[in-house]
Design a protein that fits this description.
single chain; 155 residues; mainly beta; four-stranded antiparallel sheet; 1 helix; 11% helix
Length: 155
């Protein structure tokens, strides 16, 4: 049941970002290369329509692929793969390392500390906890409620 709840959560996030992006408040829109860099402690969730995500940290990592994306992992942790409807899900407990995901239609979520992430392409991020982020045009702080950031590539 826990796994199904996590998968359902990822599905809801994918739907909310890919289908209803205009309902999100407190957004930061990126222009040009569509790049986000963030560092902090807490939870970072990225829903990417297309692009690249590189994330490192210590904690719990979930990657869900809806369309077509490649995953490269290095470091420590116990990872399990799941198939659910149209999603391929990789869940890593005790994650202490780096992940790189590239392609179309994927989500990355890391919860823990010493999180460092770089994302480029088109998508959406929610940064919850303590930390900072910057884009090509703006910088700000993570929040306890969750800071919403849109990642767009206008090229």
């Amino acid at each position: 049941n826990f796994v199904m709840k996590r998968i359902f959560f990822v599905l809801v996030l994918l739907f909310s970002v890919l289908v209803i992006p205009n309902l999100v408040s407190a957004q930061v829109n990126l222009h040009g290369s569509g790049h986000l860099h963030a560092e902090g402690n807490g939870r970072a969730t990225l829903i990417m329509q297309t692009g690249n995500v590189h994330v490192s940290g210590h904690g719990y990592l979930v990657i869900a692929i809806r369309d077509n994306a490649s995953i490269q992992l290095s470091g420590e942790g116990t990872c399990q793969d799941y198939e659910h409807e149209n999603l391929t899900v990789k869940r890593c407990r005790g994650f202490n390392g780096e992940a790189h995901v590239a392609g179309n239609g994927f989500a990355v979520r890391i919860q823990g500390h010493d999180i460092v992430l770089d994302a480029s392409g088109k998508g959406h991020a929610r940064l919850r906890g303590e930390g900072w982020y910057e884009t090509n045009s703006k910088s700000g702080s993570w929040s306890a409620e969750g800071q919403e950031v849109n990642i767009t590539d206008n090229s």
